[in-house]
Design brief:
Elements: E1 5-9, H1 14-25, E2 29-34, H2 37-55, E3 64-68, H3 74-88, E4 93-96, H4 111-139, E5 142-147, H5 160-180, E6 185-192, H6 198-211, H7 215-224, H8 234-244, E7 256-259
Parallel strand pairs: 1-2, 1-4, 2-3, 4-5, 5-6, 6-7
Helix pairs in contact: 1-2, 1-8, 3-4, 4-5, 6-7
């Protein structure tokens, strides 16, 4: 990935952080963004420290920048792209990643909560993709990777906001993959199953509270449904993202790839 410039959203923790670190270790220049500035700066220091100490890549500290931003805010996203281009001159790769909307059932959400979820899940992808597209078209090469959820293949009972809006991202990605392939741009989605992140822990607490069971009982349900008998690791998602961002994945376009240890039973 040497010579490539990537923007990774939601990169202060979890899968976003793991993806950004994998890109950096493979030689890319990386701009990371997240709402929590403290966590973001800690992540940047940790990533560059690992690259310098494990790989003796002393240039790594110059190949990563951290930009506090809320992906729901268009102005924030404009600043992320502008600062990335100011620092590295180009944008080749965009990873659209963010926290999930609140758990809950249909009757529980107001219009305002729906619009907030739309901004987070769908419009963040629309806006970030729109902002980076001119740079990718100019380069004649681009990789857009959307981190979605296994819920696009199999709806999760108490995640009506996520179930609805992540499918909209899949439709957008498929449309753009057809329209932008002529520019050397691929658009793909990663659909993680149960990956051990803070999001899984938050969902587990929500389930436990609603059903009056212990956290451990609720957590065991995630593991039970995975044939592999364990939760996935953020680093495993990062390896897949790195492949999709590579030249070797140039003929993979418009797809949604699940990474779930076999949790989704559907054939297609």
């Amino acid at each position: 990935m040497k010579g490539k410039v990537a923007i990774v959203c939601g990169a202060s923790k979890g899968m976003g952080r793991a993806i950004a670190e994998e890109f950096l270790l493979r030689g890319a220049s990386v701009a990371i963004c997240s709402r929590n500035e403290e966590n973001l700066l800690e992540a940047m220091k940790s990533m560059s420290f690992r690259a310098v100490n494990e790989l003796q890549d002393r240039d790594a500290v110059n190949r990563i920048i951290a930009i506090p931003a809320d992906v729901r805010d268009y102005g924030s996203l404009k600043r992320v792209v502008a600062e990335t281009v100011d620092s590295f001159g180009k944008v080749h790769i965009l990873v659209n990643n963010h926290g999930g909307p609140p758990a809950g059932f249909f009757e529980e959400f107001t219009d305002e909560e729906w619009y907030d979820a739309i901004d987070l899940v769908l419009m963040s992808v629309v806006r970030a993709t729109r902002l980076v597209a001119p740079y990718m078209k100019k380069e004649g090469w681009g990789r857009i990777i959307n981190i979605t959820s296994m819920s696009v293949k199999e709806p999760i009972d108490n995640l009506v906001l996520s179930n609805t809006l992540r499918l909209a991202v899949i439709g957008l990605a498929k449309t753009l993959s057809i329209q932008w392939a002529r520019y050397g741009i691929t658009v793909n989605n990663i659909a993680p199953g149960p990956i051990h992140t803070e999001r899984i822990e938050a969902l587990t607490r929500s389930i436990a509270d609603k059903e009056g069971i212990t956290f451990e009982e609720a957590f065991s349900r995630w593991v039970t449904r995975v044939p592999a008998g364990r939760l996935g690791k953020p680093e495993e998602v990062a390896k897949l993202a790195a492949f999709l961002a590579s030249d070797d994945a140039g003929f993979i376009n418009g797809t949604t790839i699940q990474i779930d240890g076999g949790a989704i039973r559907f054939v297609l």
